[in-house]
Known about the structure:
MLI_dom, Dimeric_a/b-barrel, MIase like protein
Amino acid sequence: MLFLLWFKISQPHNLDQRGLMSVWRREAEAALPAVKTGKVKALYKVSGRREVVAVVDVESHEELDELLEGLPIVRELGHSVTVEVHAIHPYENFYELTKKLSS
């Protein structure tokens, strides 16, 4: 199951820039190995914003919840992180559906 995850991070008032970057570094140290294993299919930082976009491949909704709750940025910043979750599928599959529905 593929999901598009859009992370929006707000800097807590009690955390300075160095502290925020320290949390973000720990997040990157956890995320980059997941890219190498294939669990994370794509991972991008949105330029000029405190946002990250990821495409993940999980076996179940429960695995997605476990993955999200285990992220350092979610564990450490909690309410300062908003995650938009969108189920996605390959466009080629949609193309096949359009052929079926237009016949």
